[in-house]
Amino acid sequence: MDSANQTVIFVITLQCADAPGIVAKASSAIFSLGGNIVENDQFTDPVTGQFCMRSRFETATSDVDTVRTVLTEALSEFSPTLGVRLETSRRRAVVMVSKFDHCLADLLYRQEQGDLSLDIVAVVSNHETCAALTARHGVDFFHVPVTASTKSSSEATLRSILSDAHADLVVLARYMQVLSPAFCAEWSGRAINIHHSFLPGFKGARPYHQAYARGVKLIGATAHFVTSELDEGPIIDQDVVRVSHARGPSDLVALGRDIERNVLTRAVQMVGEDRVALVGNRTIIFAQ
Questions:
Q1: What is the pLDDT of residue 1?
Q2: How far, in Å, CA of 110 to CA of 262, rounded?
Q3: Which domains does the chain have, with CATH numbers?
Q4: How large a percentage of the chain has pLDDT more than 70?
Q5: Which of 64, 200, 233, 236 has the fewest other C-beta atoms within 10 Å?
């Protein structure tokens, strides 16, 4: 941002069926706003034919509605899904967690250090294990117990918390409860989960012990968007680490924690910066 010229930075995202002239019309609209493009990425998905673009541009025009109107009118013939955001307008995230705190701790630490691309505005948990950790970082904590008989009412409470927090995103940081299909549909493309495997992998309880019993040579983690099909959502980020036969289950658990928090943080960062385009059951990732 050039404070001498009082410019601001906008981030825009665009998705529509591919056609000639999209970039030209978008660029002309930005130019008409006195804008200067400082970063641009685009890609046409060969499977769906969807064109995806992310641009950052500086301009003296700070009114979001004006920018959105100019871009919408210029691109109307393409009927795009258009996102317009001042870069200083950060996404608001609610993190959900159960008993494992390593992913939550990493996200809260990065927020405290100013290294996170969004704001964690609340933490929700079905246990009280992470209450003290959350309090140390000055974030509101909500204990919402979940049992077989209270799933519906617990989810109603969750919806109320998300509404009051004006949440843009939900981050499941090792939240060990299954969300309803209705909730998954409601938050489609806005809820991120971390899975303790390089998908597809060992499902169910004690995954690292299953991996050890099978003598695996790689373990990993996968961050993906939440869908009603458990752990089958569009993948945002993945990573693996090589292990040897000399590594025991506790070693794999420790290595897994490191991978999980790194992968989840990267996914959260990319979504917070509008670098993830959702195309069917796949994602387009614009590099950082």
A1: 42
A2: 11
A3: 3-86 (3.30.70.260), 92-285 (3.40.50.170)
A4: 94
A5: 200
